[in-house]
Amino acid sequence: MSGRGELFLGDLVRAMAELKPADLATLAAMAALLGQSGRVPTAAPQSHAVRAAGRGRGSADARAVRTEPVSGAPLRRTPARPPLAVAAERAPRADRPDLSEPPEGEHGGAERAVLLANRPVDFSLTAIGGPAPQATVADEVASGAELPARRTNATPLSHESPWKGDWARGIMFAVAATPVASRELDQRALLRGVAGGQALRAVPRRRRFSTRRGAQLLLDHGPGMAPFRDDGVWLRDLVGSIAGRDRVEVLRFRGAPGRGVVRQDPLTIDPYRPPPPGTPVILFSDLGRMRPPFAGRGVAGPQEWRAFVHAVAHSGCPVICLTPYESADYPAVLRKKVAFVPLDRRVSLRHAREATARVRGWLESS
Predict the structure, then answer these.
(1) What is the pLDDT of residue 219?
(2) 322, 341 in Cβ contact below 8 A?
(3) 346 within 8 A of 364, measured Cβ to Cβ
């Protein structure tokens, strides 16, 4: 049999040659089983059919079976039919056209092969639940409608806090707060003074942390801090929400604040001035640790940063540096005068309090 999934006339010829039917009825039954019932002669004797089968034994693509009538009439050839017509005859359907009859307009009665595009589609090409087809720009222009406004589906990513979400406000409060005298009496200091025979010139009060003095925030806009611009904006809003936006002075600089700072107008560079004594100076910078290539003088060196920290500490202001690097990455001279609080999720509230308390203790003792 043919291995192409279709039954042709050559398959019937091979079956006749192998089985050798004895009469015309058996031959018709074989043709009906192979879907070739319309191609078996009704008047030819068996000998002629078998002889025709023997002639077509070696050809799988035989197009017709030649038979010789007994009376010596001229030969009659059964025209070959296309495979699609055979398939349609073998599995007839109500919605499928009858391909056994030749189409109208054909000359000579020859049948035409049915194209695949002319066959009825057994499946649906309609998208279920898909978007409705949209009109093209040419259609809108032809109809006189205005072009739709351009829309973008990209949504900006939300900023992720470099500290733990529950600790961010506490860490920033430990950075921006300063100890001030409260209204509560410090009984332990009073007892120590009386027991030591000291003259009390003022009643000792307990100290508490407060943000009443505000803060000065210095944002580094140099090339080394370019990947952390979003963190700088987030820190500016966080400091303003804790210490008060009217009490926080925000300054921007490149290289080092000693070269000049920017307050409002980016084209105006003002000289740097330390805040009042006791006001914390919060630095958002790497202190020149990251030196991108071709930065040149855009990055300040260690000596320039030491001079700046010494000038701020001499004015009585504690320096706290919020940096994307570890505190151990900086020289010991800077770690003594600057409280480093890394932008790391491992930083806790205790770490921020100990770092700022150490710098305030050094500042009071110096």
Answers:
(1) 96
(2) yes
(3) no
Global confidence as pTM:
0.55
pLDDT tens track for 293-324: 766 777 888 889 999 999 999 999 999 999 99
Task: Return the ∠ at Cα 316 (arms to 184 and 258), rounded to 5°.
Answer: 145
Per the structure block, which two tokens stand in for 185? 């009496």
Distance of CA 365 to the CA centre of its chain: 55
CB-based contact 320:282 (threshold 8 Å): yes
More confident residue, 168 or 88: 168
Pair 86, 110: CB distance under 8 Å: no
pLDDT top residue among 216 and 124:
216
> Sign of torsion, CA 327 329 334 336?
positive
